[in-house]
Amino acid sequence: PRALQKSITEKFNEHEFYFFKGMEQIDDKLIGEMEIFITYAEDLSPEIINRASSLKWISAMAAGIDKMPIEAIESRGILVTNARGIHAVPMSEFALGLMLSHVKRLADLKDLQRESTWNKWLPVGELCGKTLLLLGTGAIPEEIARLADAFQMKVTGVNRSGRYDGESFSDVHPIGQLNQVLPEAHIIVSVLPSTPETRGLLTYDHFKQMRSDALFINLGRGDLITIETLRRVLEDKVVGHMALDVFPAEPLDADNPLWGYSNLTITPHISSITENYLPRAFAIFEHNLDVYSGRKEDDYMNKIDLGKGY
After folding, report:
1. If you average pLDDT over each of 57-66, 246-255, 300-309, which comes out highest?
2. In angstroms, what CA-CA distances link 141 with 134, 144, 174, 218?
3. What's the pTM?
4. Which range has the worst mean pLDDT, 13-17, 84-88, 94-98, 102-106?
5. Could you say which of 62, 107, 118, 219 has the lowest number of CB atoms within 10 Å?
């Protein structure tokens, strides 16, 4: 937005800023002079990294960096930061919205309205007393857990180590104990990133461990579950309902069979979308640019460990 462009160029007027709609608009000479890229992290390639001979820092305006050419970036020793943390509010609200919609059966109520049917006996549930299992314990699941606590839910988490220093989870388990905690959860929400350890992590057997009436929500990365596993779980109606905002391949084609499952709610990767997205992302960039410029004696926010992928 023009207002953000104006704000950043005025605040950091000792630097030169160039604004483009895409990498293809930048000529070779200019791309070779750039020290910093601000990007959504999906438009970079090894060839672009090689052409950007002066590049020292990539500020990703997204949380996921799985589409970036990590090897090319790492070989050059280029700093990478991301926008981790800015998604906590919109994604936690989205998760709670899906949970409430499920237990209050809003989709069924809308169907009854279309049929002009007054059904006062439609059984509806509540979140109070339910067990919520969060795959991941970072900023987003932490905020989901905090909101879920207001609904008097029991919140359990799973992460790599089982260590946790916050206050919103009842308990946290290492990923190796996943099969032990899955059967207890009424609702499972994944916000896991895409890493070598998480790709294809959830198998058909994991879903078989869940309650038959469980709600499974994935807001993290679509490659957590293979398309074959998704289809089989939906066909066999292993769990009560699935709500997916992310998929192994996006966007879904109009003829994709997934559209036809009544036990699946599809949303088009919008759980993090909010009118406050860019202002929050640029607040992180401004802090880091202060550090980069020597104007602030602090560490970079959201510095990525390229070896781990987050």
Report:
1. 246-255
2. 6, 5, 15, 12
3. 0.83
4. 84-88
5. 118
Residues 251/228, Cβ–Cβ less than 8 Å? no
The span from the CA of 78 to the CA of 300, in Å, is: 13
Q: Are 166 and 142 contacting, i.e. CB atoms less than 8 angstroms apart?
A: yes
Count the Cβ atoms, other than its own, within 10 Å of residue 114. Answer: 7
